[in-house]
Design brief:
The complex is a heterodimer of chains A (324) and B (229).
Chain A lengths: L17 H24 L10 H34 L17 H28 L30 E8 L2 E6 L5 E3 L2 E4 L4 E7 L4 E5 L4 E5 L5 E5 L5 E7 L11 E7 L1 H14 L1 H4 L21 H6 L18
Parallel strand pairs in A: 1-5, 4-10
Antiparallel strand pairs in A: 1-2, 2-3, 5-8, 6-7, 6-9, 9-10
Chain B lengths: L2 H27 L5 E3 L10 E9 L12 E5 L6 E2 L3 E5 L3 E8 L22 E3 L2 E3 L10 E7 L4 E6 L4 H4 L14 E8 L5 E6 L23 E7 L1
Parallel strand pairs in B: 1-5, 2-6, 5-13
Antiparallel strand pairs in B: 2-3, 3-4, 6-11, 7-8, 7-11, 9-10, 12-13
Classes of the chains: A alpha+beta (324), B alpha+beta (229).
Amino acid sequence: MAAEPQPAAPTQGRGPSHGMRIFVIWLVVSVVADLLFGFLLAPHLPPGDMSSAAHDEQDAINIMVLMSAPVVAFVLVYFGYALIVWRHREGDDEDGPALHGHARIQTAWITVTSVIVLALAVFGTVELWDSHGAGAGEGPAPIFKPPGTVSLASWTPGKPLVVQVIAQQWRFTYRYPQFGGFETYQLVLPENQWVQFDVTSLDVIHSFWAYQLGVKADANPNVNNVAYAKPTQLGHFMVRCAELCGLWHGAMFNSGSVVTQAQFQSWTGATKSFMADVTRLLPAFATTYDPTVIPAFRSGPVMKKLGLTSAGGGFYPPQDPVQP
Amino acid sequence: MSLPVRVGTLIVAFLAVVGGAIFVVIHYLLAGPPVIDFTAGGSGAGKQVNIVLQEAPQTTVSTKPDWVSYFIRDPKTKQWVHTTFFKVPAGATVNVTVLGYDGCTPARNPFFGRVTGTIGNTETVDGKTVRVLDTWRSCSVGHTFSIPGIGLNVPMGSPTTVAANNALCTNSPCTSGPKATMKFSFHAPTTTGAYFWQCRIPCGGGYVTGFGGPMQTLGYMTGQMEVTS
């Protein structure tokens, strides 16, 4: 007598290894994403490679993208896998299995994300230190300084060049204290020399953004905001105001140039001579200026009699009938 | 109310709202100061254009009588027009005469006392050729005429004495009163387009840093030079 066929046992065994599948898909997608980014996009990311600050910024962006791409890939792969594999099927109206805690997954998740965040924090701090502020305004007392002592009396190659950026509605002007303190509309910098930008404003808040140099520092009235960069390539770069500052904010831009040391010395000599007649009228170089105060010795008798002792605009007093 | 009446009422109301919006856009948002045309006779390096401006201490022809303003004399009618928009031919030599009826004000940055961008980097003030004016030391500058796009910055002279500064013209456009006369020339760019110009002296009294009000309102102390082919 033949034995009766036995009913098939319930499928309590191990199903497909979803974890392994997801891991393999994630690994492939991550490697492809990082390779595509690294070889195709990374070399072309802003702000470019024209100065040390710009180079460091580009490196930092690239490293962060390379690190974050696998994280994004994991989220998307898991999402896509869940949508396809664990979707609702016709006739399957049963509840899913109860969910319980999974200590190993939770521990791994917390550990991995903590390591990534802490690693990025350490990386960012090291980059800030290593690149002498990464081209950002560091305030009046910068922590991350380039090597060399700054002398305002004169400039010698190898020491930081000081350029004061003076913002006013709607034009940047540039003052070179180490060359007699002349002021000019042109921003000319020597190649491969550290530059210290002392950024300030004479009216409202502006922002000095030398895009290709990777320098961006707010220009606040009565504040000296210091930023550093070392131009490493000859050529032109764009300067824009990056803070909405009034009617012609959009037109507040100019181009600057990086030249050889010989060209720079020649330019400073010619400009110093060309601007000599107005340089003698400028206030002594200072890190900030109060344009509402004209030194008493500079104010002539007619100005004093007219009460024009300041160059402010100020406000009408409260009792004045004319109010804007 | 019948259906046709209700539909008609709805259409009329809709058209009224749309019409009102169009009126506001055209009348208030798109309206700007008139443009004075100096392009008659074509363009080119040999072309000469003569522009006459004046600064009036008060703009009594406007709704802002306390504001200072530039005016431009129309070459066709010889009448003063309250505007700061003008059109010049590309590449032309632009000869500018400015009648400075306003009093002196110190600049926030004395650097702008330097003449730049004119032919010879000079101007004449009451017939005297100057390269730089000390806006802090002497009562000598009322405003500037500056076109950053072409590197032009010309400080405008002013009446220099206490008596003259206390007896300034009070009705615009000014036809009498103490004044300084400035003359300078510059080359219009060969690239066509709109080049904004502005005053750099903080003459927007009553506003933050003196750069509000007339300093930020087209038709008063800032405007555009349109360069056409």
